[in-house]
Specification:
Blueprint: E1 2-5, E2 9-11, E3 15-30, E4 33-41, E5 45-54, E6 63-69, E7 72-76, E8 81-83, E9 85-93, E10 99-113
Antiparallel strand pairs: 1-9, 2-8, 3-6, 3-7, 3-10, 4-5, 4-9
Length: about 120
């Protein structure tokens, strides 16, 4: 599991938060894998999710290498206040895989003023 956390973000009336997150996960010699990633607001409020998985039968050949990219883009419209945002990546693989690693990753936020 890998988690990226932004500094606290304060939102005023008529403001939104644009969140962009991604991660590249590499697996070596893997039969099946699953990668779940999500953006949370104040640890318990999940606002966006990305799931990627390949599940193969036991008689199918494994992959020498598999790379998974988990992009997430979300515009959050919370009430005025201060919020803590985090991006979490959780990966799992079938037994017998050689290596798994989270390579490049990023998590950014931009506060937008909404005019109408």
């Amino acid at each position: 599991m890998v988690e990226l956390t932004l500094p606290p973000i304060t939102v005023a009336l008529n403001q939104s938060v644009k969140l962009d997150a991604f991660a590249n996960i590499n697996f070596a010699n893997v039969q099946s894998y699953s990668v779940n990633s999500f953006i949370s607001r104040n640890p318990n409020d999940i606002v966006d999710v990305n799931n990627s998985a390949i599940f193969q039968g036991p008689n199918q050949p494994g992959f020498d290498q598999a790379t998974v990219t988990t992009p997430l883009n979300w515009v959050d419209n919370p009430a005025p206040g201060t919020y803590n945002y985090s991006f979490t990546i959780v990966g799992s693989a079938s037994a017998g895989f050689i290596d798994a690693s989270v390579e490049s990753r990023g998590f950014t936020a931009m506060v937008l003023s909404i005019t109408g």
